[in-house]
Amino acid sequence: GAGVSQSPRYKVAKRGQDVALRCDPISGHVSLFWYQQALGQGPEFLTYFQNEAQLDKSGLPSDRFFAERPEGSVSTLKIQRTQQEDSAVYLCASSLVGGLRLNEQFFGPGTRLTVL
Amino acid sequence: GNSVTQMEGPVTLSEEAFLTINCTYTATGYPSLFWYVQYPGEGLQLLLKATKADDKGSNKGFEATYRKETTSFHLEKGSVQVSDSAVYFCALSEGGGAQKLVFGQGTRLTINP
């Protein structure tokens, strides 16, 4: 079956531009996560949705970062006024259930953002 | 805060060698522990997990035991293959419904024939 998909796979932006990154989770998955992975590092948590509710946004590095999941399915991560330090791979993951039950997160291929 | 520290890479071994990649963690409460693998050109995949102390996770010949007394979750495989070449990430998930993953920095493994 279809896994988590992300688009675009690659994005080049000039400093100061706004970008929008899309994540299509596995159909029926309740939980959705965004992570940021800098070159040579492990992914770092940005934000978490359970259905359409954004339950944790403690990892967003600044108020230039904004995420939404209005219908509890597709999610968009928006970065305003991009800076060079925003260059990274942005990973989306989804899992079947939320709440207290631990379950596997399935990762998408990521969007590689390069800010010039 | 919670953190994961992994053995620095890159690690290069010959086929059929024994593999250990060290992972230690710092956490409050009782985290679950994971190893994820990223093969060249592919996304992160769950390799194995352990949810409580003394649990052993295993998959594809890899094993890791959750050691609370040493706060460790070292990854081992008895005989590696060229196809095991990848980047390996140790991670923890905080308990109590906070499912976000905290990752180590990753260890690149290369297996030569």
Mean pLDDT of chain B: 93
Question: What is the terminal separation of chain A in angstroms?
Answer: 37 Å
Please state the overall shape of chain A, judged from the principal axes of the Cα atoms: globular
Order of helices and strands of chain A: EEEEEEEEEEE
Give the oligomeric state of the chains in this entry, treating copies of one chain as homo and distinct chains as hetero: heterodimer
Distance between the termini of chain B: 41 Å
Give the helix level of chain B as a range of percent. under 10%
How many E-type strands of chain A? Answer: 11
Helix/strand/pairing category of chain B: mainly beta
Please state the average pLDDT score of chain A: 93
What about the largest sheet of chain B? 6 strands, mixed
Walk me through this protein's architecture.
The complex is a heterodimer of chains A (116) and B (113). Chain A has strands at residues 5-7, 10-13, 19-24, 31-37, 44-50, 53-56, 65-68, 75-79, 88-95, 106-107, 111-115. Chain A is mostly beta strands. In chain A, the strands form 2 sheets. In chain A, strands 2, 4, 5, 6, 9, 10 and 11 form a 7-stranded mixed beta sheet that branches. A 4-stranded antiparallel beta sheet of chain A has the order 1-3-8-7, with no helix packed on it. Chain B is mainly beta. Chain B contains no helices and 12 strands. Chain A binds chain B through residues 3-4, 31, 33, 35, 40-45, 48, 56, 59, 91, 93, 95, 98-100, 102-105, 107-110, and chain B through 4, 6, 32, 36, 42-46, 49, 51, 89, 91, 93, 96-106.
Nutshell version of this structure?
The complex is a heterodimer of chains A (116) and B (113). Chain A is an all-beta fold and 116 residues long. Chain A has strands at 5-7, 10-13, 19-24, 31-37, 44-50, 53-56, 65-68, 75-79, 88-95, 106-107, 111-115.
